[in-house]
Automatic annotation (TrEMBL):
Keywords: Membrane, Transmembrane, Transmembrane helix. It comes from the Bacteria. This is FHA domain-containing protein. InterPro entries: Cell_Proc_Reg/RNA_Proc (IPR050923), FHA_dom (IPR000253), SMAD_FHA_dom_sf (IPR008984). Residues 76-125 form the FHA domain. It comes from Ruminiclostridium cellobioparum subsp. termitidis CT1112. The keyword Membrane applies.
Length: 149
């Protein structure tokens, strides 16, 4: 009878060790996932860098004047249609011309198949990451990317 009690005690200890190892593995995996998400900037609603677009030359930019700043946030759509966050009413601006969005820890500008193109530092682009100081041209409107608060 004493032998049976020792066997049960041994299996109880073994079960506890196995459970501790399983919990440890789960915690390590969760920390890896959280670390990867933080590096990509996808926690806290896709935490962005807080950058803005400063109006250098409003051109045909509607209500914007030189020196105005527009926060980019997580996504900023630009175009002639009133449903964009930044409306540029010129006929040479497409209804949905371009968008800027935060992805993998950086801001990306993407031309939305506009008729007249989107330019960064004088070069027409389809999709490109942005840096502070970049100059964006859409029709006659000229914008500069800033990282100042």
């Amino acid at each position: 009878m004493r032998f049976d009690l020792l066997d049960l005690s041994f299996f109880g200890i073994l079960l506890k060790i196995v459970l501790i190892v399983i919990i440890y593995i789960i915690i390590v995996q969760a920390l890896k996932i959280m670390s990867r998400d933080v590096k990509r900037g996808s926690l806290a609603g896709g935490k962005n860098l807080g950058w803005k677009l400063r109006i250098v030359y409003p051109g045909d930019g509607g209500n914007f004047v030189e020196g105005d700043s527009v926060p980019i946030g997580n996504k900023l759509t630009i175009g002639r249609n009133k449903f964009n966050q930044m409306v540029l009413p010129s006929p040479s601006v497409s209804n949905y011309h371009a968008k800027i969005y935060f992805e993998d820890g950086r801001y990306m500008l993407e031309d939305l198949n506009s008729t007249n193109g989107t330019f960064i530092n004088g070069i027409v682009v389809d999709k490109k990451s942005l840096q502070p100081g970049d100059e964006i041209s859409i029709s006659q409107t000229v914008l500069t990317v800033t990282d100042d608060e």
